[in-house]
Amino acid sequence: MSKYRSIIVFFLAFAAMSFAPQQAAAPGDKVRWMRWEEAVSHLEQQDKKVLLHIYTDWCTWCKRMDTITFNAAPIASYINDQFYPVRLNAERKASIEYKDNTYEFVENGKRGYHQFAAELLRGRMSFPSVVFMDEQGEVIQSIVGYKSPEEFERILTYFAEDYYKETPWSAFKRDYAPKLIKKED
Question: What is the CA radius of gyration of the chain?
Answer without folding.
Answer: 18
